[in-house]
Amino acid sequence: MSAIRLLVLGAVRQHGRAHGYQVRNDLEFWGAHEWSNAKPGSIYHALKQMAKEGLLLAHEVAPSTVGGPPRVEYEMTEQGTEEYFALLRQALTSYDQKMDVLSAGIGFIVDLPREEAVALLRERIARLDEWRSAVTEYYTPENGPGQLGHIGEIMNMWVHSADSEAAWTNGLIARIEGGAYTFAGEGEPFVGILADDEPNPYAAPR
Q1: Region of residue 181 (left: phi > 0; alpha: psi -120 to 50; beta: else)
Q2: Cα separation of 113 and 121, whole Å?
Q3: pLDDT (0 to 100) of residue 136
């Protein structure tokens, strides 16, 4: 799963209707250009591709003031909304997602009801535990990973990562169950989008 589809769909959804520069500006405001493949070319390509797939509806609006082609604004279709939530749930539950995919999922987690968000995170922990049990049962030598020399450090790294991720996820669940953040159906959540004329202090160099 690529993070760019989830990031772009989520950014368009937060605006309701957005052009490519708005999507790019928001993703850079969130730092996504640093921790994901959300680079300008990837963003514009994803918008056009998902419009072809019927996930986004493209609207040509006023021509550019500098004589370029008409600006295109995008809004999500019903199919796009279904895809967005499917990607979001997958990002939150899969233990083997890359960090950018999980980061994108956390960024949009408040689009779900609080109870569902907790349930998905618990599912993720269960999958992490299953993976950890499997690898330590079948791939750890009787005398420990050290028996494999420095190669054993690979196992140490993955097990440590699984333990750390489970601990962090449990902490997030505790915060959510304790009332942190505003989830779907509870009011207006924090979205962190920029107005058209608002400067972006975290923009990538042009």
Answers
A1: left
A2: 13
A3: 75
> Which residue in this structure is represented by tokens 């937060």?
14
Residue 138, sorted as left (phi over 0), alpha (psi -120 to 50) or beta, turns out to be alpha
Coil, helix or strand at residue 67: coil
What's the pLDDT tens digit per position in 75-108? 999 999 999 999 999 999 987 767 899 999 999 9
Determine the pLDDT at residue 206. 58
Tokens at 138, concatenated: 């079948």
Phi then psi for residue 203, to 5 deg, are: -65, 145
| Alpha carbons 19 and 26: distance in angstroms, whole number | 11
Residue-wise pLDDT for 182-193, tens only, equals 999 999 877 777
What average pLDDT does the chain have?
A: 87
